[in-house]
Amino acid sequence: MSYPRRTVRGRRVGGGSRMGCTSRLVIALIFVAFGAIKFLASTDVVTNAYTGEQQRIQLKPSDEVRLGLASKDRMIQQHGGQHPDAKAQAIVDEVGQKLVAHVNRMARYGEPINYPFDFHLLADDRMINAFALPGGQIFITAALYNQLENEDQLAGVLGHEIGHVVGKHSNEQMSKSGLLRSIGMGAAVAVGGDAGMGGQQVGAVVNQVLSTRYGREDEYESDRIGCRLMYAAGYNPREILGVLHILKRAAGSGRQPEMLSTHPHPDNRIAEIKRVLAQLPKQ
Ligand SMILES: [Zn+2]
Fold this sequence. Notes:
50% of the residues lie in helices and 10% in strands. It has 283 residues and is mainly alpha-helical.
């Protein structure tokens, strides 16, 4: 398909609205395909290096990365594969990496983690969505990309997803859910591979993961991180508001973006984002 509106930097990029988030199904399926990750029954309380939040989490950063990498291909398959437009993918990579270059400077509360971020433009031209897997795998669908009006808005989408990664939101939600203990796997559980679960247990994991969503505060936190990253990388953080307006329009047209079912209403996010923008120095 064509991307008539795509240009770069100040350029339009063709596509854009809100960022949908993690596909729980994919995360669940990761567990199946994955080689042994140990989930400890007792969670650790640690200070998030990027947000300062005290988090009760089970997965180490290296496990987050392995989970994301192990699930990446299935996520891509579920959304029609990688988008064939290599130039558009290159724009997504370029904008994503511009943001990544600044992300570790935001680690004001601990050592930066150096997540190996990787950005994927998916061929799916129906589901308006973007999402992040733990550890740095980030995705945006063509349906969303095609609505974005400029590169700054793309940075807004990707920055929000980076926020979910460094905020460790998947890790936190999975740890909170008691996911593995609830299916009777005991104090320590090895998932996938030779130590894999039976079909019934896999179904239980899928159900649990599907019922897990990021909290509202996770979404606002990702918006805050995204705005600050945009600013640090030289993008206009006000353009994130344009992304939310695109989402609202999509909802009004009856084409309910997936993101709207998984995120707070755009009006509430706009109000929060305006508060963050007011705190940023003038560009
Ligand atoms: Zn989100």
